[in-house]
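Priority: medium. Attachment 1 of 2:
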């Protein structure tokens, strides 16, 4: 527990303990990496460009390395998973290709908004013509 440098009246001791516990939790959470930081767009672009170049040249091992790096940098981007799947397909690694492509489809499905119901009275955006 974090010690308080000055005496705290008894009536405020519980509040001070809660505040210090909250501060400690915040520090531990930040150190544990709970906060997601966005990847540098320039690094994403260069990694994707290099990986695509390797794939187009048929250098599958290098392309796989770069696409894996891209997936690590942007795990919520379906294109990295899709291109990794294409790399596996070209290399004849069909089971791994299926997993990567399914991951891409799943991410894309999560990002797509739900379709709106066009039935009158069911959709907030439905208007009479």
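Attachment 2 of 2:
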């Amino acid at each position: 527990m974090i010690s308080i440098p000055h005496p705290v009246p008894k009536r405020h001791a519980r509040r001070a303990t809660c505040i210090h516990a909250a501060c400690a939790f915040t520090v531990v959470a930040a150190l544990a990496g709970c906060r997601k930081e966005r990847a540098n767009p320039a690094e994403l672009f260069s990694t994707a460009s290099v990986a695509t170049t390797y794939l187009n040249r048929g250098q599958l091992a290098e392309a796989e390395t770069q696409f894996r790096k891209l997936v690590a940098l942007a795990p919520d981007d379906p294109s990295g998973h899709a291109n990794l799947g294409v790399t596996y397909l070209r290399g004849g690694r069909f089971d791994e290709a299926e997993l990567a492509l399914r991951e891409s489809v799943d991410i894309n499905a999560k990002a797509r908004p739900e379709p709106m119901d066009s039935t009158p009275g069911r959709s907030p955006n439905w208007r009479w013509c």
